[in-house]
Task: inverse folding
């Protein structure tokens, strides 16, 4: 049974939000549109969970290091393409998550959404979901709010400071990518949980040794009860 948890920090795309991997599909298309051949699986492996300019740099460093100077141009192309994709995309919560979040809050657990997206993209997702601060979640922290994004713990540390949670041992971090787990460990979170509803596989999550791996956040209450 999990110890006393005062705050949960959930990734967005693939963890709480089902957006059909459109971010990484768009990132993949943006890189290929600039003459760089790369597999979608490679983009997912190297870019999942990261601030997206950094994700592009990491992909280029791996597959086309001589073209790393194109990262900023690709990033601008990506942002424009993603805005267009989101305008027509039907975004839904991962099954059951919209019911889970208020239950956690009703139990006195602070719910934080954090993401490698920019603030504007994250807000557009929340508007599509019709999620409201103070109802589904207590705080949103995005890559726009910090200097250092994942796996640096700054986003979690900011959430703790804002919500007056002093002990990281009372924080649970859950996400669908290895970098989510690394972020949680770097923040010294008491519990890290990998979820299989998004970008990465069991083997990829196991490589960073989360405390638990579950199919989806709807399985999270069972961890508290076990």
Result:
């Amino acid at each position: 049974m999990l110890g006393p948890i005062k705050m949960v920090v959930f990734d967005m795309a693939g963890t709480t939000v089902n957006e059909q991997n459109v971010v990484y599909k768009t990132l993949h298309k943006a890189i290929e549109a600039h003459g760089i051949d790369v597999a979608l699986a490679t983009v997912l492996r190297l870019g999942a969970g990261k601030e997206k300019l950094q994700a592009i740099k990491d992909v280029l460093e791996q597959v086309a290091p001589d073209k790393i100077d194109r990262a900023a141009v690709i990033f601008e192309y990506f942002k424009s393409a993603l805005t267009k994709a989101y305008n027509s995309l039907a975004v839904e919560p991962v099954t059951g998550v919209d019911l889970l979040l208020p239950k956690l809050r009703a139990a006195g657990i602070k719910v934080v959404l954090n993401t490698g997206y920019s603030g504007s993209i994250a807000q557009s997702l929340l508007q599509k979901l019709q999620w409201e601060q103070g109802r589904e979640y207590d705080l949103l922290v995005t890559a726009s709010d910090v200097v250092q994004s994942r796996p640096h713990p700054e986003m979690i540390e900011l959430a703790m400071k804002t919500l007056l949670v002093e002990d990281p041992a009372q924080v649970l971090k859950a996400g669908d990518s290895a970098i989510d787990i690394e972020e949680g460990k770097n923040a010294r979170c008491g519990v890290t949980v990998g979820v299989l509803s998004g970008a990465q596989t069991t083997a990829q999550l196991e490589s960073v040794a989360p405390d638990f791996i579950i199919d989806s956040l709807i399985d999270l209450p069972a961890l508290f009860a076990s």
Observations:
- Residues 7-19+91-225 form a domain with the Rossmann fold fold (CATH 3.40.50.1000).
- DSSP finds ten helices and eight strands in the chain.
- The chain has a mean pLDDT of 91.
- Residues 71-88 form the longest helix (18 residues).
